[in-house]
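I'll show a typical protein example:
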Amino acid sequence: MSTESFLVVAAVLFGGFMVWRLRPAWGGSRALGPARGALREAKKKLESAKTPVERALALCEVADACAASLRANSAVAYYLRAMRSDPTSSELVLRASRGLARRPHALESLLWRRLGAEPWSGSSKSAAITALRTLAAIYEGPLRNRARARALDHALAAMGEPPRTAPEAEGSSDVLAAAGGTDEE
């Protein structure tokens, strides 16, 4: 093969890659039309919000609309701004976990940033506990990191919170006992 044919093949591959990367912008505009309308309306509510609590809820609406229109990074940014507007609200953490349920890595990043921004005591303790519980659930579920989940359970216990799940059994016979069975089965 000559050098020109390699260049043609590389150009075709690059063009195919660009078409694949830009496909959400070209197709699906009709499907995302309602989500874009909801985003526009949510931004109007955000402009009219007066108090920090109203602003936080309006930011969550914008973030929910961004998440619905498949803009995870924008959704994370709006959820984080909402949590900074009202750091004591655990409802904002729950809304973020519902909005980003299909994007566990984005939710993980958001919750760690939230936990790093505010103290885990005082008025923001309930929001921190909700974030810890949500992170532990993510690590037990889609992200599959049981060591991190157990570490977060220990952090919850150190804060005086009841355990998130039943204590994990150590041996195989303990697993059977925890499941309700016996060794004879």
In short: Residues 166-185 have pLDDT under 50 and may be disordered. The longest helix spans residues 3-26.
